[in-house]
Amino acid sequence: MTNTLNQKNAKYESESNRFKNLYQTPYVKEIFGHLDAWDKVSFEDKQKVVDLMISKICAKSEKIDIVWKI
Q1: Please, what is the Cα angle at 52 between 40 and 55, to 5 degrees?
Q2: Confidence grade of residue 46 (pLDDT, cut at 50, 70, 90)
Q3: How many domains does the chain have?
Q4: Quick one: how far is CA 37 from the chain centroid?
Q5: Domain limits at 38?
Q6: What is the DSSP letter of 40?
Q7: Phi, psi dihedral angles at 25 (to 5 degrees)
């Protein structure tokens, strides 16, 4: 039982560190900066954010599928 808890704790720590590192990258900081003031951001900056976050958009008559980069 202790071994299982240690493994789960180690996995949690690993995931936690991975997310902390992700949020420190410059492009994520730029995205959050734009999202915080989305109504005031220029159209060009909104395009940058979309380019950083979305890989592909497939629009069909009944639905829209978005493939996210993040």
Answers
A1: 130
A2: confident
A3: 1
A4: 17
A5: 2-68
A6: G
A7: -70, 145
